[in-house]
């Protein structure tokens, strides 16, 4: 146990001595402010709009679900998740690629020959960093949401189980995305290559996948095909923090299962690759 704690402490020191973690932190909190602004703006117009004229029955049902204050509250309390998870993933990538970038990986594995222990320590640090990001963003979101909903003259619903569940599952998302980053960094050892590829896949890939599945589903009239997009971890993460189920979308727990599966698979693959890969 003491050996494992020493490894985790060592990984924290490595992370703290780089500039990356606080730069990613600044980026995450900057995007949080932007995300909260747009979420609040959207909530204001959604809560004040009552007409469903011109909408199909399914679209009207979806609109009514989003008009639920609990849904909007959960969305506001978890503001900034999309880019927050991206920056947490980048921290995980840096944790592993730094070793190759600064050519310290050989020393690390000579000091601790059991490579699995090293990877587990990096996974733990990445997850804990994600928890820290979640803690700070949630500490900002909670009072900001309460103030905003008060100006809208509606209950803040803080403490209601669907809202509490969304906040807690948001923590799970932050924990798991740190481990996803470590797994991704193992696959692409180049720090620049890994970070650029991760950003492109996360931002552009998420948008492209959503559009692709929706277009195919509409074209072929396959409603089930549109649900396949929730197999993407970034989309699954947004689904799992929904305070209310939206008609036509999977339940929140589907997103949680998908994200856990991705984290387990990438963590396992990353560990196996590191145990067998030549580091010279």
Task: Provide a descriptive summary of the structure in words.
With 280 residues, the chain is an all-alpha fold. It has one domain (2-276). It contains 12 helices and no strands.
Q: What's the layout of helices and strands?
A:
Blueprint: H1 2-16, H2 20-48, H3 57-66, H4 69-77, H5 81-101, H6 105-111, H7 115-151, H8 161-187, H9 191-220, H10 223-226, H11 233-240, H12 252-276
Helix pairs in contact: 1-7, 2-4, 2-5, 2-7, 4-8, 5-7, 5-8, 5-9, 7-8, 7-12, 8-12, 11-12
Oligomeric grouping of the chains: single chain
Number of helices: 12
What composes the largest sheet? none
Total beta strands = 0
Measure the end-to-end span: 29 Å
Helix content class: over 70%
Give the amount of beta strand, in percent: under 5%
Classification by helices and strands: mainly alpha
Number of domains: 1
Flag low-confidence runs.
none
Structural shape: globular
Average pLDDT value?
Answer: 85
Q: Which value, in Å, is the CA radius of gyration?
A: 20 Å
The SSE order reads HHHHHHHHHHHH
């Amino acid at each position: 146990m003491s050996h494992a704690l020493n490894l985790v402490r060592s990984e924290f020191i490595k992370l703290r001595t780089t500039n990356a973690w606080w730069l990613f932190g600044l980026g995450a909190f900057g995007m949080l402010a932007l995300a909260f602004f747009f979420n609040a703006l959207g909530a204001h117009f959604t809560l004040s709009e009552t007409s469903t004229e011109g909408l199909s029955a399914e679209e009207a049902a979806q609109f009514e679900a989003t008009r639920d204050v609990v849904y909007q509250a959960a969305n506001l309390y978890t503001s900034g998740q999309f880019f927050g998870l991206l920056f947490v993933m980048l921290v995980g990538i840096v944790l592993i690629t730094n070793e190759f970038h600064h050519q310290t990986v050989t020393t690390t594995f000579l000091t601790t020959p059991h490579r699995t222990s090293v990877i587990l320590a990096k996974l733990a640090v990445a997850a804990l960093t994600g928890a820290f990001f979640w803690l700070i963003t949630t500490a900002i979101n909670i009072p900001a949401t309460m103030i905003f909903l008060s100006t809208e003259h509606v209950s803040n619903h803080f403490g209601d189980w669907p809202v509490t569940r969304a906040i807690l599952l948001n923590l799970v998302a932050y924990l798991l995305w740190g481990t996803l980053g470590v797994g991704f960094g193992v696959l692409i050892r180049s720090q620049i290559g890994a970070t650029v590829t991760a950003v492109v896949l996360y931002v552009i890939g998420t948008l492209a996948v959503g559009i692709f599945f929706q277009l195919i589903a509409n074209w072929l009239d396959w409603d089930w095909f549109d649900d396949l997009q929730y197999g993407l971890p970034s989309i699954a993460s947004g689904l799992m923090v929904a305070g209310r189920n939206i008609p036509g979308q999977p339940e929140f727990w589907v997103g949680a299962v998908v994200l856990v599966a991705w984290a387990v698979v990438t963590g396992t693959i990353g560990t196996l690759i590191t145990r067998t890969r030549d580091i010279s």
